[in-house]
Amino acid sequence: MKPYIREKKTFTAAEIPEATAFEAGYLVSVNSGWRSIRPVIDTGRCVGCEQCYLYCPDGVISVQNGKAVIDYDFCKGCGICAKIFRLGAIRTEAEHK
Amino acid sequence: MANSTAERLSRDEFFYGHKACAGCGGALAVRAALKELGQNAVSVLPAGCMSAVGFNFPQLCFSNNSIISTFAGTASMLTGIEAGLRARGYSDFTAVGFAGDGGTADIGIQALSGAIDRNDNIIYICYDNEAYMNTGIQKSGLTPFGARTTTTPAGANIHGNLRPKKNMFEIAAAHDIPYAATASIGYLPDFIRKVGKAAQIRGTKYIHVIAPCPTGWGIAPDETVEIAKEVVDCGLWYLAEYENGEFTLNHRPKDFSSVEAYLKRQGRFKHLDLSDIKTVIEARDRKWAFIEKNFSYS
Hints:
The complex is a heterodimer. By secondary structure, chain A is an alpha+beta fold. Helices cover 10% and strands 23% of the residues of chain A. Chain A has a single domain, classed as Alpha-Beta Plaits. Chain A has a two-stranded parallel sheet with strand order 1-2. Chain A has a two-stranded antiparallel ribbon with strand order 3-6. The longest helix of chain A is centred in the middle third of the chain and has 5 residues, at 51-55. The radius of gyration of chain A is 17 Å and the shape is elongated. Chain A starts with a strand and ends with a strand. A nine-stranded mixed sheet of chain B has the order 4-1-5-6-8-7-9-10-11, with helices on both faces. Chain B is an alpha/beta fold. Chains A and B meet through strand 2, helix 1 and helix 2 of A and helix 2, strand 3, strand 4 and helix 10 of B.
């Protein structure tokens, strides 16, 4: 389980909570527009060591079938994953070419 | 290839979709700690970066129970949450607070001291990015000597912050707290181990984790983890624990890496001259002489 994007994007006045309480993990916007660089995983070189998964500040990397997969909706392109893995399985490229 | 640290953590993400700057060290500390503590952690966040980036109604990025406290009241709200849940018959939960360096060493120190004094069963984690970053980089009690902030600017006569960093770890330990530790997000498995250990101990636990801020420190977003490692390697920070009245050092660098290289790669220290750097190195050597004398090393 992790917070996920919900469809509903507008709230009527009656739906806005009066107290500071609301459903946990309720996301309405992505962070993908923040990126100036995009990390790309070379699945051939990925050894599934999970270092990138561990050190991602946004938690956008998961390991599926032994290979790292990036959730580009929420990746901000900080590049920590590319630096932490020194064998070059993650390279960074410009977001807008 | 198995990663033993990744194996012990929950695969769930409890801090996801937040609006922290790219490469935020504080966000990594919160995410890692919550993955160790799991779904039943109840987290308290005072005013500061992590509450500002985590709770933007309706964008709510915590998937465990979380609440914003007053700036000064992280520890007192933790006390209340722990007592309230216990009174209602819950036992399988962890009350954990994530406060910044200003919220801990300046504004929240009274509430923290009170909670440790009562020995409430809570975990207090201070993510230390060494200034009030959320409001635009003002000096806090944990800003190190020489750092340029907007309230300690660097000019011809005064070279940034004049005062050294408060020693919050030993201040917490001086309360005879059941467990206190220092950590760095550059040594993430060590931090995660300490959070896990704290969760098993009854009473108040204090963990102080260095969490660099690319925006305030003047580094590239991808350097956060690297610089959090370097601050330990050059001896300006140390990984230690306090338990049963004893200090233990967890990691002793073989040879310190260059303090000058660590300082000069950050925008906030660019202005320091050789005599400032000498002052930093002398303070480091004094600190390590104290550590060698008073800490055991296993």
